[in-house]
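Annex B. Sample input.
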Amino acid sequence: QVQLVESGGGLVQAGGSLRLSCAASGRTFSRYHMGWFRQAPGKEREFVATISWRDGSTRYADSVKGRFTISRDNAKNTLYLQMNSLKPEDTAVYYCAADLGPPRLLLPVAGDEYDYWGQGTQVTVSS
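Annex B, continued. Sample output.
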């Protein structure tokens, strides 16, 4: 069992920054891929970013590339999402997720590739 708890959301003006955190517990955090997803009102959940447990490689949605940075601190069992140059369209509930396997050739970007989810944290960007 894995528990994931997000924090760091809030209200920010367009152009501002936020850093989300996701604290993990329950299993060996360092041995699974981690990802961030988001869901805006009336829209489907969408992939934001993912990071490998093996080599720290990353993958981003085109909509956030160059503005968001995903990182992890395995010693602290914590995943981060640094969000810069925020836009009103980034407004959503942000979720972290853990992929416990099986081994993959590509980093997971589909929600059904992840096994555990946090409860989400609200990010609101005002124009």
